[in-house]
């Protein structure tokens, strides 16, 4: 079960209802799996329409899913060896912080990403490189 958001019982107290949301960690992992598969549609499905992507500390790179699609579609097409491995992951509330090791066109990079998730979608990402 994912994050439990509400629990209630009926008046007799002999039945219980549990409402759960998909955890922020699960959403970010789905995003990572789609990234590694270079599946642009599955990748974008994890983001809100109003996604904001920043470079640390607070430089806005772009805003909105359409801008993200333009950026990542060509990137996925031009990087057949694209792969991201998570070295460490910290989850605090609705934030997921990943220490990443990336392979892009034969070169290796270290980076960190801070994802903020609301209502089952990633709404903000800050990259540290």
Automatic annotation (TrEMBL):
<protein>
    <recommendedName>
        <fullName>SnoaL-like domain-containing protein</fullName>
    </recommendedName>
</protein>
<dbReference type="InterPro" id="IPR008317">
    <property type="entry name" value="UCP030561"/>
</dbReference>
<feature type="domain" description="SnoaL-like">
    <location>
        <begin position="28"/>
        <end position="124"/>
    </location>
</feature>
<dbReference type="InterPro" id="IPR037401">
    <property type="entry name" value="SnoaL-like"/>
</dbReference>
<dbReference type="InterPro" id="IPR032710">
    <property type="entry name" value="NTF2-like_dom_sf"/>
</dbReference>
<dbReference type="Pfam" id="PF12680">
    <property type="entry name" value="SnoaL_2"/>
</dbReference>
């Amino acid at each position: 079960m994912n994050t439990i958001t509400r629990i209630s019982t009926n008046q007799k107290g002999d039945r219980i209802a549990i409402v759960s949301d998909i955890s922020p960690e699960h959403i970010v992992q789905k995003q990572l799996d789609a990234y590694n598969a270079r599946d642009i549609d599955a990748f974008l499905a994890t983001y809100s329409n109003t996604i904001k992507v920043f470079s640390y500390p607070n430089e806005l790179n772009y805003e909105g899913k359409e801008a993200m699609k333009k950026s990542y579609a060509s990137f996925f097409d031009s990087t057949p060896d694209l792969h991201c491995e998570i070295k460490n992951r910290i989850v605090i509330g609705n934030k997921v912080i990943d220490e990443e090791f990336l392979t892009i066109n034969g070169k290796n990079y270290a980076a960190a990403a801070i994802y903020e998730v609301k209502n089952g979608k990633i709404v903000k990402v800050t990259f540290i490189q």
